[in-house]
Amino acid sequence: GRAEGWAGSRSIRSVLAGSGLTRRSAPPPGSAADPGREPRAGTMSTAMNFGSKSFTPRPPDKGAFPLDHLGECKGFKEKFMKCLRENSFENALCRQESKEYLECRMERQLMAKEPLEKLGFKDLIDEKSEAKLKTL
Amino acid sequence: MQCRDRQPAPTLEPAGPGRGEGIGATGLGGSAVAGHDSDQIETMEPVKDRIIKVTFNADVHASLHWNFRPQQTEIYVVPGETALAFYKAKNSTDKPVIGISTYNVVPFEAGQYFNKIQCFCFEEQRLNPQEEVDMPVFFFIDPEFAEDPRMANVDLITLSYTFFEAKEGHILPLPGYQ
């Protein structure tokens, strides 16, 4: 049967043990056969540290971005990355560029349209951006 | 607007024409609905004196032949301010491959304050042969991070994504993956 999300570490252990997803000949780290072993980098247990206090991932609030297969917003991404490189990777100095990247996605159905203030850009909103969004 | 209500449950069917292809085939197709989190984002204020370095790791499961890497090694953010970062993935094989990713945040205790507004995780992503795509992560650190005494000495958060291949018959213990 299929694993039911994160319900119970024991069921996930048995899933990992039986899944055949790890290639190593040793028992998968964290499996029932190997409960106390340290997880190795590069295996599935990177994200799941059974038997110890561990982080539980949550899905993103607004779901997944569709892939930009045609690279339609690549130029805006490049502009943003250039800004980061020129500003010691300080996010606060590149928010205009990040806003423009997300606006590009919204204009091309690569992201659900949202008012910019709901994306944390209320201080960067001007009439032009708002008017543009309303026409989409 | 919660992920669970909106996206179709990923399936374990083999890839075929029309499934997972094209823009908008996965992820959001409809309009956004204001929810609790959108209100929080709209009203939160950046805590400008708490600079946090976020570093990025990328990993692939052994059987997934993708070149997957972050496009920046680090970014400096403050709680209460939305931030954008990019990964990049290339399918270096000669066949379409569907991957699905999960993520991890360390330190563990900081993870509860790490909010992903939107990213590329938990949903199948199909790359055609030799295709390379940008994969954005749009996130913020909850302003309450700055008020948690346990976080007083935390100024480095590491975000790690791991991609797996989504193949029929394999079970991946990912939230909401059935």
UniProtKB/TrEMBL annotation, chain A:
<comment type="similarity">
    <text>Belongs to the COX19 family.</text>
</comment>
<dbReference type="InterPro" id="IPR010625">
    <property type="entry name" value="CHCH"/>
</dbReference>
<feature type="domain" description="CHCH">
    <location>
        <begin position="73"/>
        <end position="107"/>
    </location>
</feature>
<dbReference type="InterPro" id="IPR009069">
    <property type="entry name" value="Cys_alpha_HP_mot_SF"/>
</dbReference>
<dbReference type="Pfam" id="PF06747">
    <property type="entry name" value="CHCH"/>
</dbReference>
<dbReference type="GO" id="GO:0033617">
    <property type="term" value="P:mitochondrial respiratory chain complex IV assembly"/>
</dbReference>
<protein>
    <recommendedName>
        <fullName>Cytochrome c oxidase assembly protein COX19</fullName>
    </recommendedName>
</protein>
<feature type="compositionally biased region" description="Polar residues">
    <location>
        <begin position="43"/>
        <end position="55"/>
    </location>
</feature>
<keyword id="KW-0963">Cytoplasm</keyword>
<dbReference type="GO" id="GO:0005758">
    <property type="term" value="C:mitochondrial intermembrane space"/>
</dbReference>
<dbReference type="InterPro" id="IPR051383">
    <property type="entry name" value="COX19"/>
</dbReference>
<feature type="region of interest" description="Disordered">
    <location>
        <begin position="15"/>
        <end position="63"/>
    </location>
</feature>
<keyword id="KW-1015">Disulfide bond</keyword>
From TrEMBL, chain B:
<dbReference type="InterPro" id="IPR007533">
    <property type="entry name" value="Cyt_c_oxidase_assmbl_CtaG"/>
</dbReference>
<feature type="region of interest" description="Disordered">
    <location>
        <begin position="1"/>
        <end position="40"/>
    </location>
</feature>
<dbReference type="Pfam" id="PF04442">
    <property type="entry name" value="CtaG_Cox11"/>
</dbReference>
<comment type="function">
    <text>Exerts its effect at some terminal stage of cytochrome c oxidase synthesis, probably by being involved in the insertion of the copper B into subunit I.</text>
</comment>
<feature type="compositionally biased region" description="Gly residues">
    <location>
        <begin position="17"/>
        <end position="32"/>
    </location>
</feature>
<dbReference type="InterPro" id="IPR023471">
    <property type="entry name" value="CtaG/Cox11_dom_sf"/>
</dbReference>
<keyword id="KW-0812">Transmembrane</keyword>
<protein>
    <recommendedName>
        <fullName>Cytochrome c oxidase assembly protein COX11, mitochondrial</fullName>
    </recommendedName>
</protein>
<dbReference type="GO" id="GO:0005743">
    <property type="term" value="C:mitochondrial inner membrane"/>
</dbReference>
<keyword id="KW-0472">Membrane</keyword>
<dbReference type="GO" id="GO:0005507">
    <property type="term" value="F:copper ion binding"/>
</dbReference>
<comment type="subunit">
    <text>Interacts with CNNM4/ACDP4. Interacts with RANBP2.</text>
</comment>
<keyword id="KW-1133">Transmembrane helix</keyword>
